[in-house]
Amino acid sequence: MRRLLVTGSSRGIGRAIALRLAKQGFALTVHCRQSREQADALAREIKAPVLAFDVRDRRAAQQVLDGDVRTNGAYYGVVLNAGTARDNAFPALTDDDWDEVLDTSLGGFYNVLKPLVMPMVRAKLGGRIVVLSSVSGVIGNRGQVNYSAAKAGLIGAAKALAVELASRGITVNCVAPGPIATDMLEGAPLEEMLKAIPMRRVGTPDEVAAVVAFLMTDEAGYITRQVIGVNGGLA
After folding, report:
1. How far apart are the C-alpha atoms of 106 and 148, rounded to whole Å?
2. Which of 80, 97, 115, 180 would give a disulfide with 93, using CB separation of 3.0 to 4.6 Å?
């Protein structure tokens, strides 16, 4: 059975992705940083192990992932979903606001994939990597200079890695959601946001999960180096 890791899968979009992929028959591994109770509940539901570490912590990520691969073998697929937002106008951003968002997204890309890519290559079974970017990384959003920078950086990193891994049968793609009905929308100016969305509604985690799930299939084997928007026509 093909093993998949979904980072940040204890809630929101990550949880929806894990549930969808488990239904498709993949052997899921759940990841969390702090929400262990939620991660454990999901793991019980889909009968999956849990890995707990901060994706910003390179040493911790390597230790946990190296040990997991030694015990259970290489992953066939990875969904990099872990992320965070600390929005504010650029002059009001703090150093911590910048560092936490960039370190979680871009640091997490490196810290999670570095221990996992070569085992995937050596397994010679192909593979799938899906990176959760954002419409903010495509068009830029007011009050999200840090978040837009992080999500745009993920697009560049994913496209470059896609070129490196294409000959190995490993695809690398980005999914870039627009506003999605999760707790990250709490306090957002929803009425203003809806005016900019041609479909006049926010998306659901399941709609994002459906795209990620397709990219994990054999049918998606010729799709790589792409950015797929799930945004109601926003961009």
Report:
1. 12
2. 97
The catalytic position among 76, 110, 147, 222 is 147
Residue 82: count of CB within 10 angstroms of its CB: 24
- Chain segment 173-202, per-residue pLDDT in tens: 999 999 998 877 776 667 777 888 999 999
Strand partners, 128: 77, 171
Compute the distance between CA of residue 125 and CA of residue 214 in angstroms, rounded to an integer. Answer: 18
DSSP label of 180: B
Distance CA 94, CA 128 (A): 36
Strands 50-52, 77-80: parallel, antiparallel or unpaired by DSSP? unpaired
Q: How many residues does the chain have?
A: 235
- The pTM for the full model equals 0.96
Query: Buried b vs exposed e over 177-201: b needs ≥16 C-beta within 10 Å?
Result: bbbbbbeeeeeeeeeeeeeebeeee
Pinpoint the alpha helices (H) of the chain.
12-23, 36-46, 58-72, 95-102, 108-123, 135-139, 145-165, 190-196, 205-215
CA distance 135 to 148: 8
Phi and psi, residue 223, nearest 5°: -105, 115
pLDDT digits (tens, 9 = 90+) for 59-107: 999 999 999 999 999 999 999 999 999 999 999 999 999 999 999 999 9
